[in-house]
Structures are given as C-alpha cells and as structure tokens.
From TrEMBL:
Keyword Disulfide bond: no
Protein name: Lysosomal Pro-X carboxypeptidase
UniProt keyword annotations, A-Z: Glycoprotein, Hydrolase, Protease, Signal
BP-aspect Gene Ontology terms: proteolysis
Top-rank taxon, per record: Eukaryota
The UniProt record lists the keyword Hydrolase: yes
GO MF annotation list: dipeptidyl-peptidase activity; serine-type exopeptidase activity
Listed Pfam families: Peptidase_S28
Protein species of origin: Cucumis sativus (Cucumber)
Gene3D superfamilies cross-referenced by the UniProt entry: alpha/beta hydrolase, Serine carboxypeptidase S28, SKS domain
Family that this chain belongs to: Belongs to the peptidase S28 family.
C-alpha cells in the first residue's frame, strides 16, 4: 500500500506529494517551491505496503520465527534484462532467502511459494507475511523470499549513493526489471535445488501484490499461479475515480460514527482559523503536543490526513485504529471543542509518547526509492473531492513539474496500463489470463482499485466486507475473526486446486 505514493495537491503555497511508501514507512516529503519560501508537500498518496504496523506505532516483536530456518543467498543478477548494450550485462548481487523447513525435498515436485518483495528490505517480511509459513506444512512447500532491486541489500552499482544518485543509474529501477529479476532467480533456484517440476505460486501484497499478478501474466511458464493481496492494479489512468481512495476512508469513518465524521470534516477550517490568529501556531503546538514548532498549519493537516488514511487502510483486528480514533473524538469534551477532540484522536491513535507530530525522522531507503518509482511509472491519480477531507484534486502537471525538478525526467503516467493492461479488464483478461487470486478487504481504501469480481473460473476475486489492507497474507492469530479465517481457507483451497490440476497434467506428461 502508505503504504504513500505519488500524488500531488495544492494547499496555499504547498504542493502535496503522496507516495507508495515502502512496506513500513510513510513517505513525508518536504518540497520547497515558490520563489523564496518553502512549502511542505505531504504524503497524500497513501502508502502501498502490506504492513502498516510500524507507521501505526504499535510495537511488535520481529523475527519471532527461528532464524535457523532461513538461509540467505545472493544471485548474480543482470542489470538490464531488456537491452544488449555492454553496460546492460553488468551484474549486481540480489538477495533472496529460503526456508527449507517444510519442503518435500529435491525431485519431489513439492510446490514453491515465492514471496515477491516490494518497496522495502525483505527482512521483516519473513515474520510478517504469515501466509507462507502458516500454510507451508500442508503443501510441503519450499519458501523463498526475493528482495526487490534497489532495496535492502540488492543494490546495483558500487554503492547505494551511486545507485540512487541520478536518473541515469535510477533508470534500471522499475517493475518490469523487478519481475524479470524474480523470473531469473526462480528458474535458478529450481535448477540449483533439483526442483524442475515444482509448481511455483507467487505471493505479494499491495505493490507486491501488483507485481505478483503482473508476474503471472508476463511469466506464466515460471509461475503456476499468483495470490495478489490488496493489489490496486486499476488505480492508473482514469480507470478508477481519482477520489476513490479517500471516499472509502470517509465511508469507514462515517460508517462507524456520524459525529466523528462531522468533527473531522469541520476541523480543517478550524485549524486554519486558529493558525491565522496571533500566536495561532503556538496554540496548535500546545494543543497537539508537537515535537517541534509547526512551520505552518499544513504540517498539522498533512499529519492528520495521513493518520486517518493509514487508520482506515490498516484497520486490522483486534485493535481497529478507526474505532480507537473515533471513540476518543466522540468521548472528549473540552472548552477548546473541535481541536481538543481531534487531538484526543491523535493521542489515542499513537498511544502514550512524549510528543506527537513533527517527530525527528531520518529519510529511509524506501522514501528515496519510492519517490523515484512514483516519479517514473507508478503514477496513481489519487485525490480527494466531496468527502471528509478538504478538496485536493490530483494535478498531473504538478507531478510532472516536481519530478522534472527532482530528476530531470518526467513521469510516464500511462506506461503501467500500456505494459500490463487494466482498461476493460473483465473483457480482456479472461482471454489470456488465468490462475490469479485477487484478494481484498472492502474497508481498505485501495480496494476501490482492486479486482472485486470474478473474471473467469481461474481469475478469482476473494474479498471480505470487513477486511483491511493485506490482512489475509499476514500471520494468523487465534483471535482472528471467522470471516478472515474463511477468506484464507478459500485462498488455500483455490491454490490446492491449481496444484492438483498441475500434478494431473504432469503425470500425463511423464507417461
């Protein structure tokens, strides 16, 4: 998903730039425009990451799985799969991690579950993406986790600084190269471990879910099927309404509490009114316990905007952050009225910390990497209109101007649908696609751009009314609601059917 990506809006002198933030951290981007001064461009582009817990500031123990189960490898990956110039043959070490614990062994034709890494290092996925380990034993599956190029330890060129230095070295950083990397590694792994007839199921969530679905379409000879969780493959061009994402956020809050929705909706104008008073920013600093003084009301608004979006996107049980925010807003009574209610929502969302908003934060590799991806091909036209947020229409020209200033190259907003398709998907995809599960939770704002209807007998939409972003591929817990348990069982049953059919074909082939 937050995960935030690339979308721009105007606010005063500020341009807001959202982004598919890496699987863990929302991208807060400060952009200085106008002749002398600066303007803060925030993540109004919701993050595209399977895991939002770090952004939600909930502590969680990582690496609870036995590390001895995982073995790290590096593949000598080709820099450019689509060109034959001498420099294209340059290689770099790409990291992949294998769990052999449940595998049926060489020559067993036991399946391979391959997790396709997205916009972050692969490390945390070993623990968070529980669908792999939770189901491996019943399939006797080999588990492989492949890191996306330019993230983590899979860095082309001699250093991260050089790889991310300019548009020339960044030019090899795109989804087509990434899925070609995955194909090369999977073919290598099958050969290396004598698993030539092992069927491969690729799995991914959010941006990684998009990659999984696209991989199955582009490399059907490598992957038997794909589980694409919360993959908004239809949020390009004009396929999905631009205000779709934020209309779902609004629906989530309003469906829970009309008074909470009304309070949030009117808070924007009240924040601006207070900000323009003498010492107004200081009043806001005190009310919201900011970590450093606000430079403008837009910093507070951008924080709240991202908080509400993330709460809706990652509204996972049992904590349900939307409920937590609204309970605090509705349950607060103060002489400061709306502002105190909104502040109470922030405190409830974040929990007990020393300060809120404008915390010191170092830019992550995901911030840097996704900024490039959203300035090249991942141009998702997300804006807001008639909902609980101020009107913030998507402005493609602002995106083009920003990316030109930053990289010296403009984005290609129509390339994703040119290369992967998306228009008239129900008419087109049934003619050549197969064996993809598009899973969604309808509380997830990104579900508005997901595939929500079966396209054919093997292009299947599996969704839950109360589900949130990538919830189905996260680790199972005893407290999971029954509807989530059923969703996962349905997905496992579909995958079993694909593999059974494959084994029947394989038996005939070997006769």
């Amino acid at each position: 998903m937050t995960k935030h990506e690339t979308f721009f809006i105007n606010s005063q002198s500020a341009m807001r730039f959202p982004m598919f933030s890496s699987p863990w951290i929302p991208l807060l981007l400060f952009v200085f425009s106008t002749s002398v001064v600066t303007s803060l461009q925030h993540n109004r582009f919701p993050r595209l990451s399977p895991v939002g817990e770090k952004f939600l500031h909930h502590s969680r123990v990582l690496n609870s799985l036995p590390l001895d189960d995982f073995k790290t490898y590096y593949y000598n990956q080709t820099l450019d799969h689509f060109n034959y110039r001498p420099e294209s043959y340059t290689t770099f070490p790409q990291r992949y991690i294998i769990n052999f614990k449940y595998w049926g062994g060489p020559n067993s034709s036991a399946p391979i579950f391959a997790y396709l890494g997205a916009e972050a290092p692969i490390d945390d996925d070993l623990d968070f993406i529980g669908f792999m380990t939770d189901n491996a034993i019943q399939f006797n599956a080999l588990l492989i986790y492949i890191e996306h190029r330019y993230y983590g330890k899979s860095i082309p060129f001699r250093s991260r600084d050089e790889a991310l230095g300019n548009a020339s070295t960044l030019g090899y950083f795109n989804s087509a190269q990434a899925i070609a990397d995955y194909a090369a590694i999977l073919i290598h792994v099958k050969k290396e471990f004598h698993a030539n007839y092992s069927p491969v199921i690729v799995i991914g969530g959010s941006y990684g879910g998009m990659l999984a679905s696209w991989f199955r379409l582009k490399y059907p000879h490598v992957a038997l099927g794909a589980l694409a969780s919360s993959a908004p493959i239809l949020y390009f061009d004009d396929i999905t309404p631009q205000d779709g994402y934020y209309s779902v956020v609004t629906k989530d809050f309003r469906g829970l509490s009309e008074t909470c929705y009304e309070t949030i909706k009117k808070s924007w104008s009240e924040i601006e009114t207070v900000a323009y008073q003498p010492n107004g920013l200081s009043i806001l600093d005190q009310e919201f316990k900011t970590c450093r003084p606000l430079r403008g009301y837009f910093e507070l608004e951008d924080y709240l905007w991202s908080m509400y979006a993330s709460a809706a996107q990652y509204n996972h049980p049992p904590k349900y952050p939307v409920t937590r925010i609204c309970d605090a807003i509705d349950g607060t009574y103060s002489v400061n009225g709306t502002l105190s209610k909104i502040a109470a929502g922030v405190f409830a969302f974040r929990g007990s910390v020393s300060c809120y908003i404008n915390e010191p934060r170092n830019e992550t590799e995901t911030d840097v990497g996704w900024r490039w991806q959203s300035c090249s091909e991942m141009v998702m036209p997300i804006g807001s209109d008639d909902d609980m947020f101020p009107p913030s229409p998507f402005d493609l020209q602002s995106v083009i101007n920003y990316c030109n200033r930053l990289y010296g190259v403009p984005p290609r907003p129509h390339w994703a649908t040119t290369y992967y398709g998306g228009h008239d998907i129900r008419l087109v995809l049934q003619r050549f696609g197969s064996n993809i599960i598009f899973s969604n939770g309808l509380k997830d704002p990104y579900s508005i751009a997901g595939v929500l209807h079966n396209i054919s007998d093997s292009l299947l939409a599996v969704y839950t009314t109360n589900g949130s972003h990538c919830l189905d591929i996260l680790k199972a817990h005893e407290t999971d609601p029954e509807w989530l348990v059923r969703q996962r069982k349905t997905e496992v049953g579909i995958i079993k059917g694909w593999i059974s059919e494959y084994y029947a074909d394989l038996k005939k082939y070997k006769q």
